[in-house]
Predict the 3D structure of the following.
Amino acid sequence: MHNISIIRVLDEDTFFIDAGLNAQIQSQQFIEVLNPKHAYKNLAQVIDVYEDYAICRKLGDKRIFFGDIVKPRLIEK
């Protein structure tokens, strides 16, 4: 899997990532948003999934930026 990143920030809490059904991202899945310039991360949750991208909502308190790296959490089965 390639590095997943934020491709568009809609508002302070909602953003698009460049992965979707093709990358096996699922709705309600939790992801971590890592900022490469600073040593912090946010937790976010996928709210809608499309073929090539997904819409997510930030749950953490740190700001998110275009280009931040996203790391999906494993799904419990």
